[in-house]
């Protein structure tokens, strides 16, 4: 038995090692930091990522593509050999049961470090799975919000279309009071903007107002419909911003082009009402201030006057709004006040 022990795994470490405890601890820390740094640097180069990113998890990649997963495996493995050197220097290796037993006794610390690779790997695996689950939940929540926002936009677009039908009908009724070049052919939204502008002069609008062909109440009704369409448009834009938070310019968004295309179709209507509102307010001011006797020919109550002034200011703001002007909500030259 003594012969077997003599031929077993035996070590003689006299004259090797560091006896100072503080220096020993410093060497151990230096070895650990060096190994972790080198392995992290290797995987950062391998995966083309920053060095610090090797210690984080990317939920978009699989587990095999996570540098931290491989670091958790290779760091204990490399440290096993690094610290094993201090345990194995001066030892004789033999294949026997006693040698293996002595090897385990001598290599307790390196083997303990090597055993950490399994719990470290499992921990990283769990953290990666948790992060992927959290991302999937966020994506699901974002998708639900996106679908809800898209549904709201569709409902608002349907509302806008319904308002446009009413605006077209009421505007055609007003345009029907004007004839083209004193002929029987009446104006309608089917005519080009140039024809409408030429036929709807201030004098002709004023004449229709005095004769009662055009009622101020009808003009205000169309203004209210256009204002409702404007509110609907603003709501659509706000909802659309939620879908395109990463766009710096909404005009580059395909959905935004679809939304604004609706406003192009309101150009004639808004311009028609704008011109009539201007004449209404002009007649009312003239009748009150310069020709009081004429006020009886065109009666405009204070409520009507105030409401028309509000809509005129709104049209003026649309003139100043480059976005709406660009998309044709109100077209033509700027009308001076």
Provide a descriptive summary of the structure in words.
The protein is an all-alpha fold. It folds into 2 domains: 2-115, no CATH class; 139-326, no CATH class. 69% of the residues lie in helices and 1% in strands. The chain is built from 13 helices and 2 strands. The protein has helices at residues 2-7, 21-46, 67-88, 97-106, 108-115, 117-175, 193-199, 202-211, 216-243, 254-264, 267-289, 302-320, 322-326, and strands spanning 10-11, 91-92. It has a two-stranded antiparallel sheet. The longest helix is centred in the middle third of the chain and has 59 residues, at 117-175. The protein starts with a helix and ends in an 11-residue tail after the last helix.
Topology:
Layout (H helix, E strand, L loop, with lengths): L1 H6 L2 E2 L9 H26 L20 H22 L2 E2 L4 H10 L1 H8 L1 H59 L17 H7 L2 H10 L4 H28 L10 H11 L2 H23 L12 H19 L1 H5 L11
Antiparallel strand pairs: 1-2
Helix pairs in contact: 2-3, 3-5, 3-6, 6-9, 8-11, 9-10, 9-11, 9-12, 11-12
Total separate domains = 2
Order of helices and strands: HEHHEHHHHHHHHHH
Poorly predicted runs of 5 or more residues: 1-7, 246-252, 293-297, 330-337
Q: Tell me the β content.
A: under 5%
Look at the structure and give the mean pLDDT: 76
Question: Strand sequence of the main sheet, in spatial order?
Answer: 1-2
Using only CA atoms, what is the Rg? 42 Å
End-to-end separation in angstroms reads 117 Å
The chain-level structural class is: mainly alpha
* Largest pleated sheet: 2 strands, antiparallel
Total strand segments? 2
Shape: rod-shaped
Number of helices: 13
What share of residues is helical?
55-70%
């Amino acid at each position: 038995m003594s012969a077997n022990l003599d031929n077993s795994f035996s070590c003689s470490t006299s004259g090797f090692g560091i006896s100072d405890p503080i220096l020993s601890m410093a060497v151990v820390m230096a070895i650990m930091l060096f190994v972790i740094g080198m392995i992290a640097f290797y995987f950062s180069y391998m995966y083309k990522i920053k060095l610090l990113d090797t210690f984080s998890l990317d939920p978009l990649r699989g587990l095999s593509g996570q540098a931290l997963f491989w670091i958790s495996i290779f760091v204990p493995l490399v440290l096993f050999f690094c610290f094993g050197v201090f345990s194995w220097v001066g030892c004789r290796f033999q294949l026997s049961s006693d040698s293996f037993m002595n090897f385990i006794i001598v290599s307790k610390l390196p083997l303990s470090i090597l055993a950490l690779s399994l719990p470290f790997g499992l921990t990283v695996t769990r953290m990666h799975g948790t992060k992927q689950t959290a991302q999937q939940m966020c994506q699901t929540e974002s998708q639900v919000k996106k679908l809800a926002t898209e549904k709201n936009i569709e409902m608002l677009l349907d509302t806008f279309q319904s308002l446009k039908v009413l605006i077209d009908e009421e505007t055609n009724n007003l345009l029907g009071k004007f004839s083209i070049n004193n002929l029987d052919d009446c104006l309608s939204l089917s005519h080009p903007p140039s024809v409408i502008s030429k036929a709807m002069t201030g004098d002709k609008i004023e004449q229709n107002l005095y004769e009662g062909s055009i009622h101020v109440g009808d003009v205000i009704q169309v203004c209210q419909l256009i204002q409702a369409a404007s509110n609907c448009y603003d709501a659509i834009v706000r909802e659309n911003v939620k879908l395109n938070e990463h766009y710096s310019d909404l005009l580059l968004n395909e959905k935004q082009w679809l939304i604004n295309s609706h406003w192009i179709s309101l150009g004639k209507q808004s311009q028609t009402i704008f011109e009539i509102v201007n004449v209404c307010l002009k007649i009312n001011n003239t009748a009150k201030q310069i020709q009081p006797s004429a006020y009886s020919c065109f009666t405009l109550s204070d409520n009507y006057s105030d409401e028309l002034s509000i809509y005129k200011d709104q049209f003026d703001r649309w003139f100043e709004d480059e976005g709406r002007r660009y998309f044709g909500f109100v077209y033509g030259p700027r009308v001076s006040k």
